[in-house]
Amino acid sequence: MKKPLGLTFAIHATDRGFGYVAFEGPFTPYDWGIVFARGDKNAVCLRKIEMMLDRFAPETLLLEAYGKGSSLRSDRIARLYRAIISLASSRSVDVVVYSRADIKAVFRPVGAGTRQEIALAVARHVDAFRHRLPRPRKPWESEDRRMALFNAGALVLTHFRLGAAGLFDDLSQTS
Fold this sequence. Notes:
Helix 2 (75-90) links the parallel strand 4 (60-64) and strand 5. The protein has a five-stranded mixed sheet, with helices on both faces. The chain is an alpha/beta fold. The chain has helices at residues 41-56, 75-90, 100-107, 115-125, 147-163; strands at residues 8-14, 17-25, 28-36, 60-64, 94-98. Helices cover 39% and strands 20% of the residues.
């Protein structure tokens, strides 16, 4: 498979590793997956991300806001995101950070506000992800590890709506 030019690459870190997606365009996924890390999780994640940056050579890297005022992300994940930004910058990859409010604003027109509703909207618009959609979790259950994939996908759709010259007008216009 020949690598397309201008890939958009999104990462969503979790307490167990990270989910990632690489897109050629607003609804055209190129590659995706979930990576698990043990031991020194930040070091393991950074090595994997470095390999992916080399393999994909993305034009843009997307992350969800991780600062104290804008998110509930742990200090470890905030350190990881700062290291990812440094790594991407050293490879001349543009880094764009979107807040949770930005993501919710993009998905609000289709009635999606919670992470589960946003994941469902992503699955509706990206055929390749539909069969990976986790069932809604019960209040006592941990978040399904596959949600990292959908959170990364939501970042890409947010980027194409808000940041990439409005490449599509509204999620409700797609199938």
